[in-house]
Specification:
Double Stranded RNA Binding Domain, 3 domains, 18 helices, elongated, disordered N terminus
Length: about 575
Amino acid sequence: MSETDPQKAGKGSAGGGGRARPLKSGARTGGEPVAVYDTTLRDGSQSESVQFSVEDKLRITRYLDNLGVDYIEGGWPGANPKDEAFFARARELKLVHSRLAAFGSTRRAHVPAEQDGVLKGLLDAATPVITIFGKSWPLHVARALGISLQENLDIVFDSIRYLKERTDTVFFDAEHFFDGFKADPDYAVKVLMAARDGGADTLILCDTNGGTLPGEIGAIMRQIALEDVRLGIHCHNDGGVAVANTLMAVECGASQVQGTINGLGERCGNADLTSVVPNLVLKMGRTTRMGREGLPRLSKVSRLVDELCNRPPQKNQPFVGASAFAHKGGIHVSAILKDPATYEHIDPELVGNERRILVSDQAGRSNLFYKVRELGITEVDPADPRLQQLLTELKDLEFRGYQFDAAEASFELRIRKALGQLPEFFRPLGFRVIDNHIIQEDGSQMMVAEATVKLEVGGRPVHFVSEGNGPVDALYTVLRRALEWHYPAIDAVTLVDYKVRILGQSADGRSGTGSKVRVLIEWRDDERTWGTVGVSEHIIAASYDAIMDALTFKLYKDKESSAN
């Protein structure tokens, strides 16, 4: 290894340097903000079943920049064509708040830094920040790399010095640092010293296996004694404590937190930034460049990433989940109406979420009255007997299998009808659905569904027949046709999602294919989305009820809008 340039490193050769004051809580932060480093596009993309396209990665980058994170790790240049394409196109992005980082490894053993392909790829990405990882656990040095401990120190030092001479900012991820410290604390610290002496701007301590506990994180960080370095933290969630470990590290002086949106990542994932950042800002009183003004955008970014991952959002996710501020028990709701602080640890609007009051078989009158007020109905008294009658009806419906958490349109229609506020837009008179299984001369098979519906619309009976790709499609198509001649706006309604859940035994005790089913359907038009529900032993009958609710809700909302 060549001698260290004192103008570049300033602390001597790899593994050298003096020891100074011990790390204490806040010792290296100096009151400055905690930097937020997002690795959703790299570490997060290693989640099972997650495949981001280049367009997805560019879109997430723009959202993260708008959110206000400090650093966005875009991927590993040269590792695959997708990351190459991303970095090429990312040069066109006009980022306002964030700096893009390229990620890679230290140089290979026995290959000079200037000849190493990985380091060349990192520089070719032309990002203002480069993050490289190196081994800090002797087990990995011996087994994974097959080199001596000193050779590993030289590799870390050489790689960082080479990059730092050519790049503005270089971060070093000390892979498996906590496992390495537990096995050989002196060597783990020597790896940090080599990175520091090479010129790394921040040394990130990685709990790569995710098995370290918060108390261990604190105890280890308090034993580190390095001068003039900034420490970061990168935790995986294999023990379920990645967020806790990250917060503990900040308490012990870490000035950079790494993680992913929604905790995406290999195996059990990474520290979830949608929990880390609100806890830092709202609970620990720490500042980030994102600031309190960026937090209200957090829920939107969380939902976007889940959508691009093609996975349903985790309802019980802290801070940003749909259930994070949902209240179901009657006693809870009664208290919430008096003071939200009784059952909420923060105002949901601080993180872009919202309070939800659920009506179920566990609900009381307070739940229902809250929902009535939420709909803007102010003229009803809490003691109105119609509310108690409606509550009894709703509890009976839930006992029969209805669920209104994801079907608020069906729920609102029942409130409006109970209070005499729902006009009769049409009157159903009956329907029929026929499935035809046709075997053609060449042996191929074809399914054709035909639906017939009778309604009274605009004071006159109508009778329509339509075909569809399946019984539900045929039924929806014929109902639209039967209504749109009188209500043209019906044509804007689109089915977005359709879910069927088997509930168990039917009313006559039948199970299996004779079980009762619940159908949940999501809809949208040009202005809104809404959900409806139907329950029956017959899947088509359940679908019919959900479709009728959807069309009725559309007509009601249009009438309400025109009146306003």
